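Re: weekly structure request thread

Next one in the queue (197 aa):
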Amino acid sequence: VEAVQLAAEPGLGATLALALGSASAQAADAINWTGFYAGVNAGYGFGGDPNVHTVGQAAPNIANIAGGARPGFVSLDRKGAIGGLQAGYNFQSDRLLIGGVVDVSYTDLSDKRNVGTVALNGVDHLNNRFESKLDYLGTARIRVGYAGDRFLVYLTGGFAWGKAKSDVDMFGAAGQTQFSGHRDRTRTGGVGGIGGE
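Done, posted below.
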């Protein structure tokens, strides 16, 4: 009955038809985000857990750290370029999107610091070099979001891992190496965030 009444009013009927035609065109152009995807990423990163903790492995090193002649704990500020590959799958039902993504990236997140100290004799000046680096970083995450016609907003979270390196070199007053330490380890943790496409 309403359609007959609208059709009886030519101006309103024409407006309604135009609106319906526009809606149909938008529906035909709507993007469905379901499917596999892969790509590359690049950016800049900073932060993390870059502290270097040295306890010493021999009695003289332990005594130097305990007496303040050598720093046992140094905080570094890792930062640098990051880039890698990613792949995932999305499933869209109406406006709800659920998906998973895995990415692995090479990083140049690193920091070096030289710390000068005075030997236990109170005379000799000592140099100590500390370095922290994250070689690579990977994540495996789920995504839950809202899919618009041409945009997607989502929450993401999951598991993260990376290979961290720490290096310490402690030099004597004449520049000779008195202690050198190196540690590689894979670190794991969680990751979360928001995103848009």
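The chain has three helices and eight strands. The CA atoms of residues 118 and 125 lie 5 Å apart.
Next request, please.
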